C-alpha cells in the first residue's frame, strides 16, 4: 500500500507565526514531526529568547526579529508593562481606563525599527508554499494581511488571527474590517473564541455579562474556484490535516470528497484519509461526557455570566488532538 501520509515527512506543513511571543501554541505544539515553523517577533530580546529555547532536534523552527506591516516603513514598537500588550500602535487609554488592570498597557519603552511586508520577506528568503498563518500583533493584523496578498491568494489554506471588537489601540481596524478582507480573499470564518471584559465600576465577583473586547478567529479557504484543479496531492493532504487538527473532521471529509472528484486523490488515498478522519465510538462517548459537564456548568452559571472581570468561550478541540496525534504517528511512522 502506498502510504499517503509519508509524504508529510518530505514536504511538511509550513506554519508562519506572526507575533511569535511565547512560542508555539496549541494545537501545533503536538505535531512537530510534520511541520516547519517560521516565526516573526519584532521584540529582539524576546526573539533571542525564543531562538535560545530551540532544542537541537527542533530544526523545523526559526524565529526572525522582523516587524511586519504592509510594506517598508519606519515605525515605533511600544513595549508595555505587560510585554504581550506591546504594539506598533499606541494603547487607547480612553477605553482601557474603564477596565481593571489597565496599567499593563502602560508604555515602558519605545524602540525604533523598520517594517516590511510578508510578501517581501518570504520572497527575499525564498520561502514558498505557506500552509497556515497565525497573526497576533495587537492591532496591526489587517495591515499585515494587506502586505501578504500574494501569499494569501496562492498558498495559504488556514488563518488564525486575533481580532478586536473594541479599539484597544488607537485607530486600529476591528473584526469587521479583518473579516471583510479575508472573505474577499476566499476565506470563511469557522470559529470565534470571544473574550469579554467587565468594567471596573462593578465588583469582580459580581455576576455580569461583560463586553466582547477581542476574539481568536479561525478561517479556512473554502473558495477554490478553478484553482482546485491545480492543487497537488501533498497540498490536499496538508489541508485535510490542518482541518482535522483544529477539530473540523467534517470539513476534512468534504475536502477528501472534493479532491477525489477532481482526481487529486485516487481511491486508495481517499480510503486512507477516511481512516484518519474516523472517530471511534469511545471518543464520541468521551465528547458527550465533556459536553454534559459543560452543560451542567452553564446551568449553574448561565452562559455569558461571569464572576471574574475577564472570560472567554474557549475552544473544544482538546479531545480531538490526542486521537489525531496517535493516528498520525502510526500512519506516518509505521506505515499501517
Question: Your description of this structure?
Answer:
The protein is an alpha/beta fold and 336 residues long. The protein has a single domain, classed as Vaccinia Virus protein VP39 (Rossmann fold), CATH 3.40.50.150. Helix content is 35%, strand content 22%. The chain has twelve helices and eleven strands. It has helices at residues 7-10, 44-52, 93-96, 118-124, 141-146, 149-154, 175-184, 233-245, 249-261, 267-276, 281-300, 318-334, and strands at residues 13-18, 35-40, 61-64, 67-69, 73-80, 107-117, 132-135, 158-164, 187-197, 211-221, 310-312. Strands 3-2-1-7-8-10-9-11 form an eight-stranded mixed β-sheet. Helix 2 (44-52) links the parallel strand 2 (35-40) and strand 3 (61-64). Helix 9 (249-261) packs antiparallel against helix 10 (267-276). The longest helix is centred in the C-terminal third of the chain and has 20 residues, at 281-300. It is globular. Mean pLDDT is 84; it is low at 291-307. Residues 17-188 form the Methyltransferase FkbM domain. This is Methyltransferase FkbM domain-containing protein. One of its GO terms (molecular function) is O-methyltransferase activity. It comes from Candidatus Scalindua brodae.
Task: Describe this protein with a few key phrases.
336 residues, globular, eight-stranded mixed sheet, alpha/beta, Rossmann fold
Beta strand %: 15-25%
Number of strands: 11
Specify the CATH class: Alpha Beta
Which class of secondary structure composition applies to the elements?
A: alpha/beta
Approximate shape = globular
Overall number of structural domains: 1
Mean pLDDT: 84
Distance between the termini: 9 Å
Task: Give the biggest sheet.
Answer: 8 strands, mixed
Strand order of the largest sheet: 3-2-1-7-8-10-9-11
The CATH H-level superfamily is Vaccinia Virus protein VP39
